[in-house]
Amino acid sequence: MWADAGKMLPMMGVSRTRGHSLMFQGKPFWTEAYNIHVNGVLHCRVRYSQLYGLHEQLRKEYGTHVLPHFPPKKFFTLTAAELEQRREQLEKYIQSVRQDCLLGGSEAFNSFLRKAQQETQQIPTQEVQLDVYLSNGQKIKVNIFSSDQTEDVLEAVAAKLDLPDELVGYFSLFLIREGSDDICSFVRKLQEFELPYISVTSLKNTEYRIVLRKSYWDTAYDNDVMENRVGLNLLYAQTVADIERGWILVNKEQHRQLKSLQEKGSKKEFISLAQTLKYYGYIKFDPCITDFPEKGCHVIVSAGNNELNFHVKLPNDQIKEGSFKVTRMRCWRVTSSQVPIVNGTANSPVKTETKLELAFEYLMSKDRLQWVTISSPQAIMMSISLQAMVDELMVKKSGGNLKKMLKKRMNGGLRRSDSQQAVKSPPLLDSPDSNREPIVKLSPPLKMSLTFSRYRKSINSTNEAKAKTSPPLQLRYWDTAYDNDVMENRVGLNLLYAQTVADIERGWILVNKEQHRQLKSLQEKGSKKEFISLAQTLKYYGYIKFDPCITDFPEKGCHVIVSAGNNELNFHVKLPNDQIKEGSFKVTRMRCWRVTSSQVPIVNGTANSPVKTETKLELAFEYLMSKDRLQWVTISSPQAIMMSISLQAMVDELMVKKSGGNLKKMLKKRMNGGLRRSDSQQAVKSPPLLDSPDSNREPIVKLSSKLSSVSIRGIGTSNSSNDISANDFHGNYAFEGIGDDDL
Predict the structure, then answer these.
(1) What are phi and psi of 84, to 5 degrees?
(2) C-beta of residue 355 within 8 angstroms of C-beta of residue 340
(3) Whole-number mean pLDDT of the chain?
(4) What is the pLDDT confidence band of residue 703, given thresholds at 50, 70 and 90?
(5) Residue 553 phi, psi dihedral angles, 5° rounding
(6) Rounded to whole angstroms, how far apart are CA atoms 95 and 87?
C-alpha cells in the first residue's frame, strides 16, 4: 500500500569553510560558508542565509508540511560544536530535498544550485566554446553560454550533429576521466542542477572531458536509433570504441568478420554482429573491492543486460565470474563514510577521505537473501545504472512509451509511476554493517511512485474574488463516470469546468509540464469538454483535499494531508525522520468507522488562569491491512465529520452501482436528507442494536455486519470516566459484498 517517495540521485555532502571577509567597527571578521559536494567533488559554496532563502522560497511554493526540518536562525555566536551540528543538519536538509521527487525536481532548487555553482567558480555568463567528445575520441565544438544547463548543452550538441529531436532522449552527457594509459573512467552522468561548461572547467584537469553516449540499456532500442543516419553513426562509433577498450569480448573469428564489415562500410551489419558478442552494451567500472564471495576480494564490475557482472580475484589468485540480475535484487543503497588517510607521519594532522559503498540485497536462492557490498568511488554511477535498467524494465513490462521515459529522464523529471507497474516496494532496510551510516534508499526495485510538481496560478478562472467571499458550489458525487451526465447540459458543463480549473489552481489535481501545456492550449481554444476529459486522466482528479492534521499511522503523532476520492482516503504522511510517504486506504476494506469528540485543555502558559477547553474531533476506522489482520487508524482533525460524510457518500454510490439502482434518485434523496440505505436495493440486513461490551457504557450501534463481535472501547478518546454516548459519534459500516473482489 505504501510507496517510497525516494529517488535515485547523486550523493550530496556539506562541509564548513570560511566565507567572505567583512568589516565591522573597523575590524575584519569572517562569515561562515558551506561547501556542497556532489559525489565528492566541490559543486558550490553557499552561506547559511542563502540556504535559508532557498528554504523560504520552497516553503512558499510547496508549503511547510512537504519540507524537511531546516536549522533555525541563531542570534548569538555559535560554538564549534553548534557549528558542526548546523552543518550536519544542513547536509541532511540538502540531501532530503534532493531525494524528494517534488522538491528535488523543482526549478527553484535546481536553479539555486546552478546559480551557486556559477557564483562559486566566478565565471560570468558569456559565450564560450565547449568541447564535447564522441566515444571514438572525435571532438565536437559547440558554441553555448557558460550558464547553459545540461539539457541546453545536450540540445546544442544534437543540433551540431543534426540529430533529430525524437532521438535526443536516447543520449546523455557523461563526465569521464581519460588517463594517460587511455583507461576511460566514468565519473558521473551530468545532472539538471549543474552547468556542464563550469563543471568541467572548474576541475582544471585536461584528463576530464564530457562525452556523448547512448543513455538506454535495452539493446532492442538500437533499431530506433539506427533508422537515422546520425544515430547510426553515433552508435557505430560507440560500438567500435567499446571493442577497442576491451569492454566487448571478441575472438579471432569474430574480429575477422567485424574487420571485413568495417572495410565494406556496413555499419548496420557491424552493429548487428556486435550485438551477439559478450558484454555488448555494458559499461565497465574501475577495479574495486567487494565482500563477495569473501571479504576484501578485488573485483571488476560491469553493468548491462539488466545485471551487474563480477570478475572477482579470490585471495588464492583464482579468477571467478558471475552476474547479479537486477530483477533478483530486493533493494540497494549507497552509503558514505569518512576514513582516515594514512600518510606515514605520526605528528601530522589526520586527514580523511570519503568512502562510497554500494550494497544490495540479493535473492541467492528461493529462501535465502544475502547482502553484497562494493566499495568504489563509482558507487553512485553503479546505482544510477541499476535504476535506469529498472526503469526500462518497468516501461517494457507495462507497454509504456520508452521515448517519453527517456525524454523525462533527460529533463530530470522521470517519476517511477511512468511505468504504471503495480509491484510492492520493499521496505527500507538497515545497513548490513551497523557502523555504516545509512544515507538513502536509492531504489525500490520494480516499484515506482508518482509525484508531480504543482503548477499554480497559470490557469486562471473567472470570479476568483467572488469565490473568496462566498461558499463555492461543488458537485456532490464521487464516481467520475457521472461527469458525462453533467456535461450533456451547458450549465452543468460550465460548473464542472470551473470546479476542475479551481482544483488545478489549488494544487489538488497534480499536473506535469506537458499536461499543463495541453490544458492551457485547450483552455485558450475554449474546449471545455476536452479540457475535462484530459483532467480526468490526472492524479487526484475528483478528490477533496483536507487541511493538514495528525494521524497515528504508521506512527503516532505523524503529520498528514488527507484527500478523499476514488473510493479511498489518500495519505501524504511526514514521518518523524522527515521522510514523506504516500498511501491509500480503500473504503471497500474499511470494516467500520466513527467520529469521536473530546474536550482537551488549552495551554495558555499562566498558572492561575481558568482552564479552557476546546473540542477535539477524531475519525477512527478499522482497516483490513491483510487477509487476517485488522488495524485501527485514527485521524485527529477538525474536519473529521466531513471526512466521515465523504466516506459514507462513496459507500452509497458503490452500493447503488453494485445493485444497478438509480443514482439520480439517490442524489435527490441525499439532498433532501432522506437517503435510506435500502434505496440501493442491496439485500444486506442492517445489524441490530447490540449491547456494549462494557456494561458501564451506553449501548452503541454495531458498526459492521461482517464480524459478529465488535469491541469499541474508547478509540482515540480521553481517559476520563465518562464514555461516549451514541450522540457523540458519526459512524457507519462498509456493506457486505463490497470489497470481496479486492481480497
Answers:
(1) -70, -40
(2) no
(3) 77
(4) very low
(5) -125, 130
(6) 12
Does residue 111 carry a pLDDT above 80? Answer: yes
Is residue 707 within 8 A of residue 736, CB to CB? The reply is: no
Which has more confidence, 322 or 443?
A: 322
CA-nearest of 199, 50, 191, 16 to 110 is 191
Q: Which of 339, 338, 360 is nearest to 290 (CA)?
A: 360
User: Is residue 211 helix, strand or coil?
Assistant: strand
Say if residue 400's pLDDT is above 60.
yes
Burial environment of residue 203 by CB neighbours within 10 A (0 to 12, 13 to 18, 19 or more): middle
In this predicted model, what pLDDT tens digit does every residue of 467-508 receive, in sequence order?
A: 343 445 666 688 888 888 899 888 889 899 999 999 998 889
CA distance 538 to 19: 46
**How many beta carbons lie within 10 A of that of residue 204, not counting itself?**
7
DSSP 249: B
Among 434, 426, 364, which residue's Cα sits nearest to residue 390?
Answer: 426
Is the predicted pLDDT of residue 630 greater than 50, yes or no?
yes
Model pLDDT for residues 418-459, shown as the tens digit of each residue: 333 222 222 322 333 434 333 333 332 222 222 222 222 233
Per-residue model confidence (pLDDT) at position 415: 39
Distance (Å, whole) CA 192 – CA 412: 6
Q: How many CA atoms lie within 13 A of 16 on its CB side?
A: 15
Exposure string of 425-451, with b = 16+ CB inside 10 Å and e = fewer, is: bbeebebeeeebeebbbbbbbbbbbbb
Question: Which residues fall within 8 angstroms of residue 551, CB to CB, at 6 or more apart?
Answer: 558, 560, 562, 571, 573, 633, 634, 635, 636
Contact 582, 3 (CB under 8 A): yes
Instruction: Enumerate domains of the chain plus CATH numbers.
Output: 3-121 (3.30.1520.10), 127-274 (3.10.20.90), 285-443 (2.30.29.30), 464-535 (1.20.80.60), 580-733 (2.30.29.30)
* Contact status, residue 529 vs residue 493, Cβ threshold 8 Å: yes
For the question of whether the overall pTM of this predicted structure is more than 0.90, the answer is no
